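pinging the channel bc i need a second pair of eyes. not urgent but kinda urgent?? the chain im working w is below, pasted from the shared doc
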Amino acid sequence: MNATSLLVFDGLLLCSIVGLAWASLASHDERRGVILFIAFGLLLAVAWGRLLAPDVALAEAAIGAGLSGALLLAAVRKQSPGSSRTHANPDRNRSESGAKVVLQWLVTLLCAALAGTLAWALLHALSSTPHDTLPRAISDNLVASGVSNPVTAVLLNFRAYDTLLELAVLLTAVLGIFALGQATAGYQPAGPVFDGLVRWLVPVLILTAGYLLWVGAHAPGGAFQAGATLAAAGVVLRLAGRSRIGLPDGFALRIVMAAGVGVFLLVGLTLLLLGRSFLDYPPAWASALILLIETAAMLSIAATLLLAFVGGQPQSAGVTAAANRQREEISR
């Protein structure tokens, strides 16, 4: 593609992203709004790819569009029919009071002013400082990081504290999910077509997650992308009506939930005992330690996203089997 074609493509991509964002927010139908949001996330992934940020593009496609869309659709499913906006009066907009319309426009103008201010600050910062200071610093220290992918080096070595806090936020989210009580009822068993699709799709997703975890050391990938892909396998199993979706039971589940933060802290504290700074990996061990941390983080991220989709604490295997037998007896 020549420069003109790329310019036209970028312009259409920008207009489509803005249009989908507006349409998803303005839709009065929750399901339509979620579908538009998923399309918005996919176009954002394309935009990140055009900006030569494949790691962010993978994360946006897997988490921003796929898993977030599934979570929103599950939330819409749990709404009672009376609370859905799809049953609202179609003439509601015409009957809105003038004060509400003024408030809506005021919020829109404030958001536009904030976006303009942030854009001006970004342009001013880019014009007043060298653009390649941070990339050169990363490149100069990449050999000692243990990986050859600069994104992984930043996330797991140069700013490992930030990633540790992100995993702590995910653990807090899981505790909030558990506070909701038992998980909601699953879906009906899938038909033969979808069931056949699940049988080969789930192994492919698991293998893809393992590949993204391994390749993250030297190419786009990593724990977040791998965890989202692994969680997608569990989501597909739940949509197919399976009672077992890959989550362990009882104490094992709690170990998986805390694995990301726990392994991170264990590595950091061990390094302190060895006389090094917290999370200051020895160059000879850096690669293995980063792979260990990312493996634990992948499992924690997958469990968190899957528990969020389930919507509560999953039932134990014994309770699930008893419920399945009861349903079979009722069906007879």
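so The first helix runs from residue 3 to 26. and Confidence is low (pLDDT under 50) at residues 83-87. — does that match what u expected or am i reading it wrong
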